[in-house]
């Protein structure tokens, strides 16, 4: 056994897929009896079981159990983002069907407006006044023409040394427009980026606009039947290339030799030997008191609060959209971190007829996390039922090179998967000693 | 006019060592080996002519690698082949797969129950009548076949092809987006043997 995996979360499944294709012998185990770990999608019974320990209440009339696939982590896929590249490269797209997210919205001055997806929507958009629109247009034109290796397109601005704040100033953009660009397009969830060199933010805006241009309407796509399909699709890839999958395997111990190097894993009284182990923080002591003399392998960095809400109507102000993302920039509601709302519905085969799911989330800043979600919850209208959770986020304390134990990061609160793919790339490099190279292939898309 | 090709997803189910993969390899490549250790081809396609105007392309999913099957395995499956070994006590497992399909799969799925190793009649443990009656009660297609001799193999896939509702789309959703790297037309010519 070359590699052994714990937890069938998306990060682990992408890696087991990629490494199986590379010819590595992979065994993949999960303590749960379902695929996906934290990135699973649950049916109604599983959802109520997890949060309430009760069956779904009859009186809510939510429809058939099997029509539901409720994500625990709200994320969408950027149409031109890193995850799309991996999906296409590995051809796992043949196991999945995708649908667009109907619109991306941003909160400004007390109400939500659609992030314009084309020129005519931009002209009609209430997000900016006439003069500001003109300034913003010049800003976007600048980004469209900007090429890193062509100084003529830089207009005297050095994106590597000058900050984003300086770039905003150069185009004279208002604070509200900065919120809109930095948070709804560059998708930063706090304002730290403003004082850093502008390049990373410029690249993020360019990625957003490219993704938007790809299918129109919004920059996001989403797999039918929920995000839980993604880890399963990569698990399928791994299985085709010889990987083995076992669920419902409680992990009793992660075994190491005298020098602390990984030797194998014991589950149900059986020990599997392997050279390396990859897993999510929950298998390496997350949330547990450290064993005396034991190594602390993961540390909590911050907490995320999420409210999974069941609605019987589309989110007000979204033009009856079957799905939407809403970003509430932190400045707009006096916070340090943005509030995100991700909404999907029966159109994505994740909920019963005439039912919408909306997940409101943010990074915890106070001792009453649920109250922090209020600006988001208030946008939803009547909430039929709501499941609130507070999840600590963990990161590994070491890169795994010394002990061959490679630990992924918890899913962060960003609204899309690019940071997950960054973690995948990072882990791949650490595990194999070489960078993950995706062959360039032409991507083709059909709208039907 | 060139015949149109309709694609269908077919999943293979059954206890290990009953010959699931052997049946598929006989069907797709007309090969058989007594000593094949484990499955080497987990995703195979095979196209058969149904009539002058229609070809049926089977996208065959083998269970290799799964100690625990994922829901994605059953998702949008148009047909299932449940295999048991007539010389082994593997019929109960086949029955439990029928229940599993009734629970997880599309209600319109075409299910074929296959008693493999029909060449080893001398060591038979599962009476043909028993399986036949069960298939009748559950409204399944049924046959016995031998991956080793090839007896009944093509026939069983043809019986499935004839039962598939040709009008039914393979995937739901009319406004979906396709994220792929090969045009559909090429895909049909490319048999994946990975």
TrEMBL record, chain A:
Per the UniProt record, one Pfam family is GDI
Q: Which domain of life is it from?
A: Eukaryota
Family statement drawn from the similarity comment of this UniProt entry: Belongs to the Rab GDI family.
Tell me which Gene3D superfamilies the record gives: FAD/NAD(P)-binding domain (3.50.50.60), Guanine Nucleotide Dissociation Inhibitor, domain 1 (1.10.405.10), Guanine Nucleotide Dissociation Inhibitor, domain 2 (3.30.519.10)
Task: Return the protein name.
Answer: Rab GDP dissociation inhibitor
Automatic annotation (TrEMBL), chain B:
Q: Where is the composition biased (Basic and acidic residues)?
A: 184-194
- SUPFAM superfamilies the record matches: P-loop containing nucleoside triphosphate hydrolases
Q: Where is this region: Disordered?
A: 168-194
Keywords per UniProt:
Nucleotide-binding
Q: Gene3D superfamilies annotated for this entry? A: P-loop containing nucleotide triphosphate hydrolases (3.40.50.300)
What is the protein named?
Answer: GTP-binding protein of the rab/ypt
Q: Which organism is it from?
A: Vanrija albida
Protein's gene: YPT52
């Amino acid at each position: 056994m070359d590699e052994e995996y714990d937890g069938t979360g998306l990060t682990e499944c992408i890696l087991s897929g990629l490494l199986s294709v590379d010819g590595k012998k992979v065994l993949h185990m999960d303590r749960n009896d379902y695929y996906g770990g934290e990135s699973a999608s649950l049916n109604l019974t599983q959802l109520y079981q997890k949060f309430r320990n009760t069956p779904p209440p009859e009186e809510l009339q939510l429809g058939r159990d099997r029509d539901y696939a409720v994500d625990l982590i709200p994320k969408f896929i950027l149409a031109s983002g890193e995850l799309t590249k991996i999906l296409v490269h590995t051809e796992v797209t043949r196991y999945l069907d995708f649908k667009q997210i109907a619109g991306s919205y941003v909160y400004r001055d007390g109400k939500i407006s659609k992030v314009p997806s084309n020129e005519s929507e931009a002209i009609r958009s209430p997000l900016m006044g006439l003069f500001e629109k003109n300034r913003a247009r010049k800003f976007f034109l600048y980004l469209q023409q900007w090429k890193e290796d062509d100084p003529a397109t830089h207009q005297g601005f050095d994106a590597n040394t000058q900050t984003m704040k300086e770039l905003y100033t150069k185009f004279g953009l208002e604070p509200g427009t900065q919120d809109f660009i930095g948070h709804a397009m560059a998708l930063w969830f706090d304002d730290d980026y403003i004082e850093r060199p502008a390049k990373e933010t410029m690249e993020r805006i360019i990625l957003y606009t490219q993704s938007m241009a790809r299918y129109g309407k919004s920059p996001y796509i989403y797999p039918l039947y929920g995000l839980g399909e993604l880890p399963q699709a990569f698990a399928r890839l791994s299985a085709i290339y010889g990987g083995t999958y076992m669920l419902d395997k409680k992990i009793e111990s992660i075994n190491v030799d005298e020098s602390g190097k990984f030797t194998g894993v014991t589950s149900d009284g059986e020990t599997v030997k392997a050279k390396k182990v990859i897993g999510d923080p929950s298998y390496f002591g997350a949330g547990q008191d450290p064993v005396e003399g034991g190594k602390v392998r993961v540390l909590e960095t911050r907490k995320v609060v999420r409210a999974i809400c069941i609605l019987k109507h589309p989110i007000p102000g979204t033009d009856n959209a079957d799905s939407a993302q809403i970003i509430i920039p932190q400045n707009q509601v006096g916070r340090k971190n943005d509030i995100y709302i991700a909404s999907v519905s029966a159109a994505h085969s994740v909920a019963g007829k005439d039912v919408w799911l909306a997940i409101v989330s943010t990074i915890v800043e106070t001792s009453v996390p649920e109250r922090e979600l209020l600006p988001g919850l208030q946008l939803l209208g009547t909430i039929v039922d709501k499941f609130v959770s507070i999840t600590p986020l963990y990161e590994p304390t070491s890169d795994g090179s010394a002990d061959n134990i490679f630990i992924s990061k918890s899913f962060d609160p960003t609204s899309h998967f690019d940071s997950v793919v960054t973690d995948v790339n990072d882990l791949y490099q650490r595990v194999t000693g070489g960078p993950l190279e995706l062959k360039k292939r032409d991507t083709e898309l059909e709208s039907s | 006019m060139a015949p149109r090709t309709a694609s269908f997803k077919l999943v293979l189910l059954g206890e290990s060592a009953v010959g699931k993969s052997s049946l598929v390899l006989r069907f797709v490549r007309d090969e058989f080996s007594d000593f094949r250790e484990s499955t080497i081809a987990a995703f195979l396609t095979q196209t058969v002519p149904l009539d002058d105007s229609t070809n049926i392309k089977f996208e065959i999913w083998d269970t290799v690698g799964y100690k625990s099957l994922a829901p994605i395995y059953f998702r949008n499956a148009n047909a299932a082949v449940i295999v048991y070994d007539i010389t082994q006590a593997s019929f109960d497992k086949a029955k439990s797969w029928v229940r599993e399909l009734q629970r997880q799969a599309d209600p319109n799925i075409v299910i074929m129950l296959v008693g493999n190793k029909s060449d080893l009649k001398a060591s038979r443990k599962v009476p043909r009548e028993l399986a036949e009656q069960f298939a009748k009660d559950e409204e399944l297609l049924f046959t016995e076949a031998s991956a080793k001799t090839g007896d009944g193999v093509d026939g069983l896939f043809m019986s499935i092809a004839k039962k598939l509702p040709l009008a039914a789309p393979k995937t739901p959703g009319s406004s979906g987006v396709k994220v792929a790297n090969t045009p559909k037309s090429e895909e049909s010519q490319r048999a994946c043997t990975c």
